[in-house]
């Protein structure tokens, strides 16, 4: 049994933030019914693409974030489609959506309406600026890049002195998805104790502001407006990437004891006794003098040679891996973080595994990402008791698919 066995989720989401959240819940054992419009989730049109046995183009993007779910197609522009959704919600524990607040309200599925269908429902919304926001913000459209820019994250990302830079993955969506799961699980725990449901109002911008780490403290305590520092840490030195002969390596030297070992590993013990560099505050104060010395030395060997040296001295380090090396990494494979997903019509597709390594109820990949409407018949028969004739009739009317 998964940790969330017995929890039923109606997934009204699209693209990334909320689908990522419902994938986590599905990995942990929840039954997730993904409700798609007749044209399907937008992300089915996002690459990379792979051709299946029928000659159709399947989206690797969609496959990577929709495993372990069931898909049904409902036309919510039709009243009968809305009626079916209400019936599904009446038997669910959680509803997750990531449309603009005005969209769900127009459809008749705001939290206030959901409560009328099932009073203890957990209703999770993810949007750019939050449902409970200033009026001009609540309805603003937002993608990941908007959240990264507005939150300030882009202003501290990228090479020192360079232009604002987006984080390489859609961290605004991903962080909101992770935090949404925490909110949903907290709400379920509260419902267990009190019998009350609630609205989980998640904002992509909020999520990124919450992980700005010490950037806010540096501004409010010191008056400094943080900027990008490339691979460096603003207050711990050395704590950054260095160019080797053939690649890059990171060396996060987080305390003075490690600093002494690091100097020995570089065969530069005199640096440890240098009055400018003895403590971390001094190294941070004099980093413009220190970093060029270290950079020159580290560039004298290739990455593998430095790995061997740093390993011998017990120092924290890592090569800056490219994705091909990540996919082939032995430890990540051992921890099931790179796994083969058997996708019908395609075969095995490599995807990231579940990071939830619980000793009794770990996250698990049990099934493929569904084809659009793959489970419409089985869900409507099993959950609502509809007959084949009723399903056939509604398909002919464009209500379901």
From TrEMBL:
Name of the protein described by the UniProt record: L-carnitine dehydratase/bile acid-inducible protein F
Annotated keywords: Transferase
UniProt enzyme class: transferase
Entry-linked SUPFAM superfamilies: CoA-transferase family III (CaiB/BaiF) (SSF89796)
Gene Ontology molecular-function annotations: formyl-CoA transferase activity
Signal peptide (residue range): none
Protein species of origin: Halanaerobium saccharolyticum subsp. saccharolyticum DSM 6643
Claim: Transferase is one of the keywords in the record: yes
Pfam families with a match to the protein in the record: CoA_transf_3 (PF02515)
Entry's EC annotation: 2.8.3.16
InterPro entries: CoA-transferase_III_domain, CoA-Trfase_fam_III, CoA-Trfase_III_dom3_sf, CoA-Trfase_III_dom_1_sf
